[in-house]
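From the shared-data thread, chain only:
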Amino acid sequence: MPVYSHSRLSVYETCPRQYKFQYLDRLDVPEIETVERFLGSRVHEALEALYLNVRFGRIPSLENLLDFLRKAWQEAWHDDVLIQQSDLTADDYRRASAADPVGWVDQLGELKDQRKATLAELDAEIEALERRIADYAAEEGLEAVFGATYYARVRRSERVRYPLTDDPRRQELEDVLRRHGRWGEVSALDIRALPSRVRSGEWPPELVQAVLPFETRGETVTVRISKRPNAG
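Structure, as tokens:
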């Protein structure tokens, strides 16, 4: 069964004879830009501008989007654009195109809200299941829990932590490191690099002893899911 592109179908809908000459008879037919095609191109440009802005974290206002569409229309419009419907004018098509961005913006906002809500629900379910699996593995003394298709490997390890930015002791820790000229070594990386530095043997004992009181230790539980070999 043949597959027809959107552009070919658009040509056929606009002018069946042009379709015959261009795609069946393979004649060198001058391409005619209909107002529908012109409108589609401007809408496509506006969509590209919208998604490019969203990609970089900028949500354009509806008025800015409409301004872009109006400007793109004015700059690209030419007298050779074909309007077949005698009861419609170029302004009719331009006004129709301006109604579209209202729907785009609302639809984009709704989709983002739905995605955020869905991800939050999924994250909560995943966290609850990981906790159940980890508790079961601990009770049974297991390192892995098997399902029919997947298996979960549970890893427990001790994690050394130091005060984060919202901890009242963080400033005191930074002052200790600055006095010893070592703050730059960890601030340029991350405060999480501090445990490895403390145990590297490169710091003098007096600095290590000054930093150790800021340590807290806790257990970290990691649940990793893999597919069972030969599972369907």
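The chain has two domains: 6-109, 143-227.
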